[in-house]
């Protein structure tokens, strides 16, 4: 049997290229029942992936039956693997499946960010994926990873998280983890970006990206890069937009090898399934035709080519791929490369037992109550009151019972997913033509009829509520709202009571910066559950806590920067659990290189070392016991060290970190005999300094806090992933022997002659304490010494066996996923200290590492982690087979930098 790769066998039927081509297509159709056309595509053309839309789905029960029928057709037709069943289920206004009895509404991506909790976003994603998985869906087309670079004028709106690439990364990765943990495959979108599109420059009605690759790399590509780096992104949706800049001219991104093969795969390192935009796009069909377009998509590097619903066009695409093979434009190797990727994804998210027997209504009925409670909480948490200058909220306090309330809205589309909606949609006329971008993205949101407003209604009412949706892209809504606002101002000037509230039920950018709108509320969604939460806010049932996304929130930082938080001493009994929760939230929000936070716990920071003074601080919610921030400080041999400074990702930009650092520095600078302050610590080895891949702007933050960051010491953690199969580079041992370098291994403090003196001369005082700890832990730790002529000490390194107590203070020595016994077998090679001035320094370091690897092998370790390698010394170790896990920059400053804190 032919092999696709090391673990995936290629069934003999794939030698028939018709079968293989069928796996490279994802297609849909219109209708709630299986049609002869979709049946024919599965049976005769071996279609391997099906796209479901709202036009296919009426209820959860009907969806489960429909999917089960599709999978049964595929199974009976001899498909070796189940169909991929894909669905757009982003939440908010983009839900292909809704059933008020079984499938819950949740806030949009921006609404979830407004709730301020990546953990909540994870729970929502997991709940969403669990629900759609129960009806047979195994691929969610999400998360949306677009950065709203030009947020006010982009059609994605609340489907995207914000205009901050780090915030988009944080919530995108949280959603991705939620989908994956529910057993559903993920698909990031819309690569390279739909977040800053120009709809005015194309003769083919195709939107254009005009940013340079450098500009894209600094913003739009950041969430895609971070999501890919987790290794958990199964697929990537490549958009159909054009790109026009000095270095690239592309008409359709998904048809360009510059975008798919070069940028997505080679530069960003994506190894999963690339899915093209729907090739039924009018501009694409008119320009090059579907046959050629399908071939171009595959040539560009796409693995799945999407054709949404037109049967004749779908047959044309199949014919095009076959012609591409006949014309030798597409090779068998290219087809099998895509086939391998698609089958690998299928293997991860489905199987025949699961596909033919979806959990269905039985599971949905059990989980619905808890998911409904999560939905209500999420919508409540997302409501944001941006301004209430006149203190109109709640209306139950600002209005008398006999006064009239007037609700005005330019919107005519009723709330989605309700029986009322379905009835009213039939009778509604569309009075406004769709815009260019509305046509392009196939949005179903109907544009509103203009509602006339009679002045006598405004005269009668004492309070007017205006509801807007994307008014920044709709001149009528914006003008309507400003007109009513002016009328209310004039009537107030004449002595009448005229309160005005504006509610944005989609983009928060409508009137966020317009101070003439005195009371401004954002719901981020126009769903029944969101409107129910809004009513409860208006009635004073709860106080809304939602926040603005991205730079809108940061634009208010001037006011928030004056905020001072109460900083308390860390109390183990009270705060340990909260610190564990904070560390988990940080891990979920961090870039993949820093996922070691998953194996960090509250105990990691407490050394109980008589030679090290500890003082740790927290900012906490005294009512809920949640920790908003944590700072660990240490004082050893005249050096004050900040060994950790963490802030809850949902609570950043409100001065929590500033308050913690100020308190920590005040305590350290008052220590008797202090000579220097250090940012970063090797023992415990959680926060070695500022990450070198500083995407979050930490350097600037610390610089603003008084640190001089000109002279860093670079520190790296490395790993050797497959220790049993590793062998020493040829000639290394001979070079060491020729240099006259010898090694010995010592255990226990009694045999530590000269070791601590060597450390004191070439490393910081905390490294001395790390060595002292290792020597006292004689059973699982030891120190390898490198000696030269006359037994002169050239270098040292700590060796620890799997499960050593030292691993409790150095998180990279713990496995990220301790699911199996073998995964626990990680050997440690820690804190190599070599006299750098010697000509043999590189050879000594390699020799110490070689001895460490031999010891790790002897202890049955499956991989080794080499922690705390200084400056550029890791480069010779990479040549030995190591890979870099993280690189940090440690800084030392004089206490005089903070004299004002004394």
Structure description:
Pfam families: Glyco_hydro_3 (PF00933). Keywords: Glycoprotein, Glycosidase, Hydrolase. Belongs to the glycosyl hydrolase 3 family. GO terms for molecular function: hydrolase activity, hydrolyzing O-glycosyl compounds. This is Glycoside hydrolase family 3 N-terminal domain-containing protein. With 902 residues, the protein is α/β, with parallel strands linked by helices. The protein has 4 domains: 23-362, TIM Barrel (Alpha-Beta Barrel), CATH 3.20.20; 383-410 and 451-554, Glycoside hydrolase family 3 C-terminal domain (Rossmann fold, 3-Layer(aba) Sandwich); 568-711, Aminopeptidase; 715-892, Aminopeptidase (3-Layer(aba) Sandwich), CATH 3.40.630. It contains 31 helices and 33 strands. The strands form 6 sheets. Strands 21, 22, 23, 24, 25, 26, 27, 28, 29, 30, 31, 32 and 33 form a 13-stranded mixed sheet that branches. An 8-stranded parallel sheet has the order 14-11-9-8-5-4-3-15, sandwiched between helices. It has a 5-stranded mixed sheet with strand order 16-20-19-18-17, covered by helices on one side. α20 (475-493) links the parallel β18 and β19. The chain is globular. 50% of the residues are buried. Mean pLDDT is 88; it is low at 1-8, 412-452, 557-561 and 818-822.
Shape type? globular
- Tell me the span between the first and last alpha carbons: 75 Å
User: Strand count, sense and closure of the main sheet?
Assistant: 13 strands, mixed
Low-confidence stretches: 1-8, 412-452, 557-561, 818-822
